[in-house]
Amino acid sequence: MTGGAKGIGRACCLRIDAAGAKVAVNYLSSESAAHEVAEQIEAAGGKTIVSRADVSSPEQVCTMIDQIEEDLGPVDSLVNNAGIFDFLSHDRTSLDVWQRTLGGKRINQHVSA
Fold first, then answer.
1. Residue 52, phi then psi, degrees to nearest 5
2. pLDDT reading at 67 higher than 80
3. What is the pLDDT of residue 109?
4. CB count, 10 Å around CB of 13?
5. Do 59 and 15 sit in the same domain of this protein?
6. Gyration radius of the chain's alpha carbons
7. Model pTM?
8. Closest CA to 46 of 73, 67, 18
9. Are 82 and 3 in contact (CB under 8 A)?
């Protein structure tokens, strides 16, 4: 679960655990919140790991997936919850904007229609 430490991501992690799945809680900057989610999952009898990775970085995502598969087994489902959003049409969204969006670094770019 990318962005699993707070808000919607936290709620999704807890719900997925309640459904019986193993949960990898991903975070970028909210380490203590991610560990709190993992502790709650473990207290309910679930299996989880915490993984720090910037999901805008392909290298970090590959490392995270390797860690998850080593600790929890094959990834069957993925919830992509991390990121921010700059309101750009799909045809004006460059790879650079996409990577900054997933990396959580808002840019102030306004494009006129």
1. -90, 125
2. yes
3. 46
4. 28
5. yes
6. 15
7. 0.74
8. 18
9. yes
